[in-house]
Amino acid sequence: MTDWRVVVAVVAAYLGVTLYVGLRAGSRGSDSVVGYVAGDRNFGTLMMYFVTGASIYSAFAFLGGPGWTYSRGAAAFYILAYGVLGMAPYYALGPWAARVGRKHGYVTQASMLSHRYQSRWVAVVAGAVSVVAMIPYVALQMSGAGIVLELVTDGRIPRAAGAAAAYSVVLIYVWRSGVLGVGWTNVFQGVFMVAIAWTLGLYLPFKLYGGIGPMFELIDAQRPEMLVLPGLDATGNAWSAGAFSSAVLVSAIGFMMWPHLFMKAFAAKDDATIRRMIVLFPTFQLFLFPLFLVGFAGVLYASQPPFPDAVMPHIILTSGLPAVVVGLFCAGGLAASMSTGDALVHGAASIAVEDVYASGVGSQLSPHSRRTLIRWTAVGVGVVGYIIAITSGRSLVELLLLAYGAVVQLAPSVYGAFLWRRATAAGAVAGLLVGAGVTGILVLQPEWRPLGIHEGLVGLVANVVTYVAVSLATRTPATAHVDAWLETSRTSQDSTPSD
Amino acid sequence: MLYFIAMTVAVTFPGVIPFNHARPFVLGLPFVFAWYIMWIVGSLAVFLFLHKSGRR
User: Fold this and answer.
1) Nearest to B21 among A228, A285, A286 (CB)
2) Alpha-carbon distance A258 to A244, whole Å?
3) Is A80 an interface residue toward B (CB < 8 Å)?
């Protein structure tokens, strides 16, 4: 049996180093809101790469990915598909957003939309939808941290206590250092968790089955349904092709709409930095590969985990690995959770204050007061996420798919802002409200979804129809403002050719 | 961006149907698993080409 005290010692050391890195990062930035929220617009390629990559390598990937391959087989391949598809439009969109951000001083996605559409209500509604989407995502990360600690200590650290310990560290460095704390800890955590995942992902199939090929040979002989699409659903029956494909589409369209990712366009040093990050991004997507191997290794494993998301810790704990290795795995799991959770907590708090509160009530707070309010709101977001994490019975992947249903509703107003001059504020607000409303209804009444299609995709169709119809039916926004805004977005400030 | 439109078709139904089988294995992986990995590796090459050529 693994010595849990060694495991806890390794985890404590990891949390200590993370806290040190996060607190040290705070000394590098200015005391302004731009410094706290957008890192003084000075993120380089390395930081952008790890901040974005950490969004893929979250607790969702580290535990949920193996959990889905173990319990649902090829259904998990949707996760492989959507990241690259979601990132591709950002190759153009990211630099466009960065340029208008630098010119007009935006630090959030909703403040950009508000200025483009000349309406504070766009900021309020877009901000509210963003925060609603981000909280289940925060909960997912906390839940993942708690699961890892509970399992590897054989219940001595309960899920609730484990999540609280890990996220206390997160809140301390987010409070002190803002986005710089998020960025520098993501670099450290990114390197750490990628090393752990590749090591375990390649080691376990060899130890248990003699190799990757022999493992799949056995699965193909005994559980062939696990190796073809669309895989299985949560009850073990065949998943529908419509549900699989719509999961790919809604996740791809929603991927870069995540405010904590989109906002990094405002933190990037220049256009070239954003494009280099995108070029390198598929390498992070490939890091999912070893995690899927771990999940497949569990399909024919001698014993069953207590629940699918626990398959990776279950195999590690029962396959005779040394306690130090178990501790390193545990730290890798926490790194995956915390490196995404910190960006979410920071992003949700920034949006709630800058967009929902400041725009909604027209508040003119001093920069110092805004920073303080963002810090306290981060604590509030952490507490709400924590309550959902310890009370929700949903799987990690289900929680994320739920969140995608909300965040994908931002896509029409974001794309429309850059691509459709005729789009109006009324259209953007109406589209967001209708899309979010339809999605919410279908979450509560899943049997109403046509062909099992993801509720967010149905909501998105209603959103687009409403956005276009209301925009055409309402007065065109000031042409000079829209022309100047679009001109800024298309004018490159790099030495490379303009768009 | 044609690559990413083709990828969208190739990794969702019904476009993935011709490639949706476990055998033959490719480097030890089920065929459809390797199919997804191949598209990700291809995207790395496409992004590199776009970046090096200065295209937007």
Assistant:
1) A228
2) 21
3) yes
A7 CB burial (10 A radius; 0-12, 13-18, 19+): buried
pLDDT of residue A498: 40
Residue with tokens 């289900």: A398
Q: Which residues contact A391 (CB under 8 A, 6 or more apart)?
A: none
- pLDDT tops 60 at residue A495: no
* Yes or no, beta carbons of B25 and A289 under 8 Å apart: no
Which of A316, A353, A415, A355 is CA-nearest to residue A89? A415
- Chain B residue numbers touching A91 (CB-CB < 8 A): 47, 50, 56
Q: What percent of chain A has pLDDT over 70?
A: 97
Could you tell me if A390 lies within 8 Å of chain B, comparing CB atoms? no
The greatest distance separating any two alpha carbons of chain B, rounded to the nearest whole angstrom, comes to: 40
Which residues touch A483 (CB under 8 Å, ≥6 apart)?
A421
* Closest residue to B8, CB basis, from A85, A216, A282: A85
Q: So what's the ipTM on this one?
A: 0.95
Structure token digits, residue A288: 């999912």
Q: Using 50, 70 and 90 to split pLDDT, how confident is the model at A497?
A: very low
Distance from CA of B5 to the nearest CA of A (A): 9
